Amino acid sequence: MEEDLLDDALLGKKAQLVLASKEKRLINFVVDYFALIIAVSLFYVFLDGLGYSITPSTTGDLKSQLQGSLFYLTYYLLVEGLMEGRSLGKLVTKTRVLTIEGHPPEVMDIIARSFIRIVPFEPFSFLGSSKLGWHDRWSKTLVIDELQSVLPDKGNWEEVEIKE
After folding, report:
1. pLDDT on residue 153
2. Has residue 71 been placed in a domain?
3. How many domains does the chain have?
């Protein structure tokens, strides 16, 4: 009986979410950017192997910008969608995406985050004092540090405390 009370006290019904630092967010961005470059390169090699000779455009025209945005969206949709709010960068830094209620993101949350990422100047939204970028705020999600946060039993909590 006493053991059950101790478990309830440790788990509680309150999630304590600690936002990931800007340094970890930068590492996430860099790792994911290089992973995206490798994935796109492999995609072009694969197409070339099938006999489709497509040379990626580097001129910065509208077609290449749309193509780059499509790859960017696809990468985050697949990676964060399949890995429950984690990308390769987030795996490295032990961070993850959650909704502001503290729950794993749903497909629509990931779609919103992914589309907002292609807004011009979005990376500069981290230059202020907030640890949240536009793609966090506008999609009502956040990136937490898994090592510092407390997530009670399988997301069954009544209250969420967010710490910067």
Report:
1. 65
2. yes
3. 1
